[in-house]
Amino acid sequence: MILIFLKIEYLTLDCGLPQLVGTIRQVSDNFTFTLNKRQINTMYAQEFQAIVERRRSNRKFDPNIQVPDEVIKRSIELAILSPNSSNMQLWEFYIVKSESKKKKFVSYCLNQSAAKTAQQFIVFVTRQDLWPKRAKWNLERIKESMEGEPKNTMQKRGLDYYGKLMPFVYFNDWLGITGCLRWLLTLVVGLFRPMMRFGGKADQRVVVHKSCGLAAQTFMLSIAAENYDSCPMEGFDEPRVKRELNLPLHAEVNMIIAVGKGLEQGIWGGRQRVPYNEVVFEC
Ligand SMILES: Cc1cc2nc3c(=O)[nH]c(=O)nc-3n(C[C@H](O)[C@H](O)[C@H](O)COP(=O)(O)O)c2cc1C
Known about the structure:
Bound molecules: flavin mononucleotide
Largest sheet: 4 strands, antiparallel
CATH class of the largest domain: Alpha Beta
């Protein structure tokens, strides 16, 4: 009965996934007393699968359908909840608002199809240079929760983590000497026990781009859940984008995401993936 109700809701609401999600939540709330936890979990799994399957890289957006600013805001808010290395949040998100800037971004994105018809451009930026600020921010959050001296080992560890380990991991000098020393240290200690190998700026770049990529994925899934479409783009002229956004030297553009209401022609063929057995290994 629930399924029939959901199906009717789904069809009458123009297949709107957000509405579907809301309806499922409402229905599941009402029927909690009859549903056990396992059934509810299965319902969320189905929603999640629907959202993942709904997301495709769409390269042609409907010029007549705007993406509401609230959709973008909600999706960035969710992106910010993404897992990120040491909760350092070395990322920034730029929403390109002005029409003149949007025009420039079409050419910065090499006039590619998704960019030409995009309603919104969101630029995902890594900011490894902001590590002192973010480490301090995390330290302050721990101190706020302490009220005085650290009372337990978790709080002491937290203070050491952001007060000592993060500066050790992220500090760099112009000549790269600190990075070499750090790499050497992890190499030597790593001979005797398992150790995260971490050296200079290149390793730090990998770390911040990993986290930013996860945020980008959360963003795109949210856009799909809102019944809009996206296309991640790495085909862009980074120096021009950085100049346009007044980004400092050490900021990097992780990707630019074009958003709009996708058209069928924007999907270039079926979803092709290498077979499961070729990429998944049990060991
Ligand atoms: C980091 C990254 C960069 C990408 N850059 C571009 C791009 O510049 N232009 C484009 O049309 N698609 C781009 N894509 C989209 C991929 O081509 C697409 O995700 C892939 O073909 C799988 O298709 P699907 O997203 O529909 O599942 C990019 C995807 C990722 C993850």
